[in-house]
Amino acid sequence: MKKLILGALLLGLAVMSPVPSMARVSIGINIALPPLIAFAGPPELVVIPETDVYFDPDLDVDIFFFDGWWWRPWQGHWYRSRNYESGWVYYTRTPYFYNSLPTGWRSEFRDRHWRGHEWNYQRVPHSDLQKNWRTWQRDRYWEREHNWGVNKNWNSRKERSSKGSSKGSSNTGRKNR
User: Which of 26, 42, 149, 173 has the fewest CB atoms within 10 Å, measured from its CB?
Assistant: First the structure.
């Protein structure tokens, strides 16, 4: 009887104790991180008119600052970080601000024009941006205080000058760009 009870006890322990499994399932998706950008110092950024999106005009690649995050497209994927120099992580979709950027914004920057108006953009030091971006966004600072540096009166002066020159008067207005 003792042997029967001892055998049942051993059988019960064998059934209840975990048995190491040899089968293993592993799924991995490997998305490479973008290469690091070598900054000479903290970047000075420019706000894109009609947005709260900033970009670094000194880089050949797009890197944006929006809503407290740095954003970077690379090889068809998006990455974001709280720091412009490191900590980039994969972001699963296109950030919503990017789809609202006007097409041709980079060429407008190069030409210093925004939708036909002179654009006297202001470079914003990184330290100022970090201290003020929330307040600027909340209070619509660029729209209310500086109009993003866009001179809305410039286009009308240019048009008047060109109309005047077509009537035979000399064009003493701004140089054509």
Answer: 26
- State residue 152's pLDDT score: 76
Contact partners, residue 100, CB within 8 Å, separation at least 6: 51
Amino acid at 17: S
Count Cα atoms within 13 angstroms, Cβ side, for 57.
18
pLDDT digit string, tens, across residues 59-84: 989 999 999 999 999 999 999 999 99
pLDDT for 14 equals 58
Q: Are 72 and 78 in contact (CB under 8 A)?
A: yes
Taking residues 32-48, report their average pLDDT: 89
Strands ordered across the beta sheet of 44-47: 89-91, 77-81, 69-74, 64-66, 54-55, 44-47, 124-125
Does the pLDDT value for residue 53 go beyond 90?
yes
Q: Is the pTM of this model over 0.85?
A: no
